[in-house]
Backbone:
């Protein structure tokens, strides 16, 4: 996942409803694909921007406009004009990244989700729904919608016989399902990190933990509001979302809760990792201190003894001056004394279970 | 409890309602047992999958289908078809583990619980309830239902004269009651750990604390949502759960609160253990430092004194050069000085209560 | 307060409503006292279990059955039969400890509280209320009800002219009031501990802090749910609790909030104690390190100087070899140098405010 | 602010409504002042206890009884009898300190606030309001009401033309406004402490931080419930508080929120101070360790070199024994070597930026 | 952002509704600009205080009075009199800083926001709205309103054809939008700080982290209540805010949530920085300890060996006294032994991965 945060705002004070291409939108041309279908009919074709104003209404069918690329604000404006979308909703399409949300504008509906598919950076998915029409906007090619397209083409399942609300559900579900593999990977990384903290608590490990924490935070910021958004779809009574479809949105909602559960579990594990790292560092410090203490405590007293008998008191001046130096067994005796002192120290450390 | 997390999702974008065997389901055959009873009659028999479509309706009796093993999606599909279960509910049976939850689908009801019976790994228990029918799904043989079966067979208590809602309650209650011994064991381990942290704050202790934390987290993830689920059964007005049975579900709800209380208490104790461990590590470090300091402070000054009189200044060159070496009592004097210095140090440490 | 947690559950899967004596109930006989009174009449007498089925209804009076001891489930069953109490409510009497709670069973009411009176272990107080009747169950002799009994006997205050709801209030109030002295004692201990942490941050202090924390947790687990229970009595509209009595239960509710305030204050203070202990340990470590550093830094350089002039270079081989040893004032000069070095060190430490 | 907690309870089991003087009430006589006014008339006079039963009703005017001192329960009882106050409300007057709260008793109202005016200890302010009457109780002379009295006397502002509810507002507002200077002072102390932590992280600093924490906790315990109390006055529909006065209580409510904001900000800053203190202690430890390490690392190797050439191997026994001692430039060479070693060490420390 | 907190209160006990210039208001004269417009007409002119009482009502147009500077309370009073504003609302204009809030006073509305535009200190923006009139008060010249003025002058967008509620929205939106660049800058600083903590965990870094924390706290205190305020505008049904305008206030509300998201993200990152700083300090301590230990452990044993053979036992007194000194290869042997000991130590440290 990309680390650099992007600017989230147009210049302060800009007139509301002003549409401007996003700074990072690039200038790849906007690709628009139209899917028009009902239980019996299916048409999929590319649409050029100039066609937009004259796109016919769905008339009992479902129309899905799949817009890929945000480099041309005039396309968004044209779609907004054609389907009478509120200017604030259009603004949200271009001012990426928005926080995931659902907003009702009288007769139409705006759904914003964030798609996080490892290893791509997060991408904003915006859906506008009016009667029989779903318009989806994505920032760049590559999305989680392919299985939906396949099901539409092949007419498998109930998707072709349901309305725009079921299509919206299918698209939202695809986006949310794509979180699971990403979270699995993060979970695997958390577990690897646990082993690594045990093996070698290096500063790099700490940095890796922090990176993991940040990625979890990114996912969390995408999932938390998605949960609220799905809930809003569930509880709002509106003709655009039929009761029979709500059971499917409840499933989406349930998935967001499962995702949150996973995110929170991993977050708790990561936060435990920080404790574990700190504890490992402390233990290592303890170990270093033990080595220092053992060696110092062994040799400093011995060194003192050696130094004692290295003194130069004049034995000839007085019989009290270091008579030990003249003893026949003075040297063996001092060696024995040193051995006893060292042995005593070692026994002491042993009893304290330091060695 | 098993440590490895299992995959919780079908491939992203899979059509909703697709039923596929779980990767870990194994291929043990699915065993189905049917219990059909009322106050006077009782029939218990094995059912083969091919019978499912023609299973008669309960007609005033209660029918409990006890399905053990998730290796064959077609069985789940057949049961779903027979009792007109929503495809999303069927999906939840196979995509284990689901989060514990209660979902109402018009005329039927889905209850998902997690059974944690030490030392088995967690197992998802799914219940589907329609008019007079309870279908329970479990992942593998071995469950907490045996006392319910015994009561059914012996016709003890009120279970035989009550309806499917009371059976659902009995099964949920069995699953929730099975948490208590597991939590008792975890509580015992927490207390053992407290003694262990005091006795020897080894890195292994820290790992054991972390393992305990993780197990408590697993239980918590099973119990928290179970509480919400039981509450939902309580507050939802629906013909499937009669008011007289709700007082029993309130008891279940109460048990989940007691379980949460225990889990939270243990979690708080475990989190106190981490503090205690860190404090024990600090204390140990303090002790090591004290030993080092005492020995260094004792012998380094003495070593200096010895070194001082080991200098080779030429006493013959000048009477100012180390005249002490020629004193009659020079050596005894220096030994006395050393004893005084050491004694002073020991007194200082004593006053600081280090020794 | 007793430290050992007791088992809180009957064997998993036991039939709901099964009454069994608690493992720790002992076999002291059950003592039952009956209080029957109205504004003019007052009767207090012992009741033997065999009388229970034929106990007359209160008929405008108030009947308080005070049951002490849980060793005989048949007594509980008999009382339940006589006053038509729900089997789940009876179960809660025996399965101690229950979480404090209030449960409405149609025409009767169950109130569970926990009594913590220092230095006794916690004791469950269960109240069952039906029209004109209060049955109280306690685990063992010794309770907070004595002042209520005295007021009943002497006919003081309004208690004799009020109904069963006021009696219930008086009993609950007695139980809750008994928390205050216990909390006062804990508060005193917290303050003592603060002084102790300052005086001597020994590991034993840390253990005492943990014990205090645990006792506060026990009180908290008794008070939190009691608050919810009192609130439930306040908000539930039911003939058993008359509006005029609710103002008294509001007072109880207020007391639980005051208790929670005290508990949370003490908890915050105790958690500050842990910080303070850790800080004291760190400071002690700092002090130890300072002593080590000062002594090492003083004597290691001096020791080097002494060692330098203890070298045995052959002065006769060359005039460059340690000519200092032959100087007339070599020894005084080196002593002066050593004094200067030591003085400089001491000045450095002084400036750093270590000594 | 006084540090000693006072007992907050009457003896457990005391009959509800029993009035007893508070242990700390002292025996200064109770002073009662009566203010009786409307837009045109104003009377202020001392009232003796024996007058209370015959105090006339306000009759369209407003009557404020300002009671100072709680040493005589019979005065409280007399006031309660005169204005038909509920016995539980009277109890709350004497059992100081109560938690700030608002309680409705049918036709009268109890408001309890805590006044914290630096440097006085906290004082409970109790207000009882019935139709046209406000009775205020305070523990001892000295309060925040003086500006209200002045406004009453001078007839400034709207106070004389408004009712008892506006008087209640004015008194509550005075009590709440008195918190601001106290909080300012605490805020100043927090900032001073920040500088002090930087300058010298002594154990005394830590104690001062803890004292500050405790004072903030005291204020918090006074303000949090005051917020709820003010809110209760706002939302309760009752004839005693007219809608036009509610806008003023909303202002009080707003002040409590501002106070909470300040308290929480200071708490967060104080909790940051603990971190900062701990970090300063760590840094100081690091510095001590650095000094120790630099000096040890400099002189221990040099000391070894000196020791090496202090060995007494018999150069006459063999030409291999310490021939360096006989070299013409042996001593200068060893001094050079030592300088190089020391220089290398210093360079190493420099590169590590320790010096 | 300015660090010094300002006094937030008038003297305790001041009569409610007293208007006094803020202590920091300075004495720059108050500048008032009047904007009067509808879709067709536009008039912008300076207004002198004496004109205020005779300002005509908007009559279908919109009137925006832009008041800059709070040095003259009489101006605020005059405006309040002219538009019949509640005295408490007027007080909030002058007692800066108020907490951001929305307050309904019957037929008029008070909106308080805090404008934080880097590098200026926070500034209170107060809006009063009555029918067709918006009065804005700011503390000093320089604001975020310029784009609104430009749009008004040029008649661009819908602003000229909408009412006072849309103007209010435009002004609020300008204030809220101005937070984004400030937050961006804080976000950049957080990221810089992360690199800095890695590079050099100096005490100054810690101070910089704390400063960042405090700035985030300031922004948080401005944004949190702004969110509640915007929400209150959304949910209140009042003629002053038309439903069609609410969709725009929802956008404002959405921005406050985005701002909160950013603030909370940065706060979490900053709090992670403290951990990281502490960990870096620990690591540095570990490194220091390692250097000390390695050098001590290398040279202290060698020093002992050297000292051993510096002893002066009298070889002539006995053949047992230090015969090694007379060996032909004694010196080379001891050098070899020292090399072996040092090599062993180095191997040991290598294996522990300390070097």
Residues:
């Amino acid at each position: 996942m990309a680390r650099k945060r992007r600017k989230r705002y147009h210049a302060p004070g800009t007139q509301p409803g002003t549409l401007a291409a996003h700074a990072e939108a690039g200038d790849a041309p906007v690709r628009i694909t139209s899917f028009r279908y009902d239980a019996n009919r299916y048409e999929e074709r590319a649409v050029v921007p100039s066609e937009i104003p004259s796109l016919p209404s769905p008339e009992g069918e479902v129309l899905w406009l799949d817009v890929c690329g945000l480099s041309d604000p005039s396309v968004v404006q044209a779609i907004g004009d054609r389907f009478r979308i509120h200017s604030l909703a259009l603004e949200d399409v271009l001012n990426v990244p928005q926080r995931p949300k659902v907003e009702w504008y009288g007769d139409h509906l705006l759904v914003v989700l964030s798609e996080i598919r490892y290893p791509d950076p997060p991408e904003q998915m915006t859906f506008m729904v009016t009667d029989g029409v779903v318009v989806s906007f994505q920032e760049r090619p590559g999305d989680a919608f392919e299985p939906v397209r396949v099901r539409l083409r092949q007419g498998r399942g109930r998707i072709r016989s349901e309305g725009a609300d079921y299509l919206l559900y299918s698209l939202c579900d695809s986006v949310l399902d794509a979180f699971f593999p990403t979270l699995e990977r993060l979970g695997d990384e958390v577990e690897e990190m646990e082993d690594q903290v045990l093996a070698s608590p290096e500063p790099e490990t700490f940095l890796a933990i922090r990176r993991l924490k940040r990625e979890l935070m990114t996912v969390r910021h995408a999932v938390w509001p998605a949960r609220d958004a799905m809930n809003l779809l569930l509880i709002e009574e509106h003709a655009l979302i039929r009761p029979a479809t709500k059971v499917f949105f409840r499933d989406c909602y349930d998935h967001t809760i499962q995702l949150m559960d996973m995110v929170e579990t991993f977050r708790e594990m990561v936060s435990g990792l920080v404790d574990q790292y700190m504890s490992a560092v402390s233990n290592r410090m303890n170990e270093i201190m033990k080595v220092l203490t053992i060696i110092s405590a062994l040799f400093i007293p011995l060194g003192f003894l050696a130094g004692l008998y290295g003194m130069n008191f004049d034995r000839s001046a007085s019989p009290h001056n270091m008579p030990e130096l003249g003893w026949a067994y003075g040297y063996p005796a001092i060696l024995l004394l040193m051995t006893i002192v060292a042995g005593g120290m070692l026994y002491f450390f042993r009893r304290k279970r330091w060695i």
